[in-house]
Amino acid sequence: FYVYKHIMPYMYMSPLNITEDKISTFFLIGIPGMEHVHIWIAIPICFIYIIAALGNSTILLIIKTEPSLHEPMYYFLSMLAFSDLCLSFSSLPTMLRIFLFNAPGISVDACIAQEFFIHTFTAMESSVLVIMSFDRFIAIRNPLRYSSILTNVRVMQIGMGFAIRCFIFILPFPITLKRLRYCKKNLLSYSYCLHQDIMKLACSDNRVNIIYGFFIAILSMLDFSVIAMSYVLILKTVLGIASHQERLKALNTCVSHICAVLIFYMPIISLSIVHRFAKHGSPLIRILIANIFLLVPPLMNPIVYCVKTRQIREKVLGKLRLKKT
Which domains are assigned to the chain? Predict the structure, then answer.
């Protein structure tokens, strides 16, 4: 009913308005069947965005202002917090417009721009998780040489290198989407814009987009494979430690990162499984998983690192005590 009432009138305009030169607006969807409670769904969504913004900003501030945290592990954590913060802000405009203001329309250019930022910061977060897995491997394998291997200059070079890699790999997405013609369909599948979703609306040849999108998907799975391989090497190193207490201590330093990896990759894997094996199922499950993919990691990563990382937790609690006094 929501689609029929609010979106279908735009989709069945006069022929002059659906030609390839006149399609200028896409329409996003919220949660099908729950349109009447979108305003109430907006409350927890706003709460999630606020907590995610405060949590990641706090981690960035703590790491910047505390000299004792100026170490490779915390520099990489600040990169993760920055990626989460930008990922939240990338999806925020359309999510709030749909759920809070009941405005599903978005211009083609704005949609393509949002798609670029979402994919860029998603790729950046994946890259940071790869870097952090190597960081944990070096810290456990060569603890005495850790500081000499990961110097501040090298950390900056690694971070900049991966950021440039993400930008270069994602840049073809908006360029190729902009060259496509959109002349008939304009209804997207989610509450935000994604490359694979936009290219399906094109009425011109989108084979380049399909091939390049598949290439980027392989790179994402390659990142996950590298993380898995890093933990195989970490586990092998830990099992070679004689003391049981030292084994637990070494593994405990990896818990936060393992949680961050699971929080980030589980929705992606789940969404891929749903697309592959439940194509004709309810779209509600697919939409909920897609929303979890963008909402949960920025929310949970600061919480996990504050709870499981003693240095971060102590600094945050110390700041809170100072404010109270």
Answer: 29-317 (1.20.1070.10)
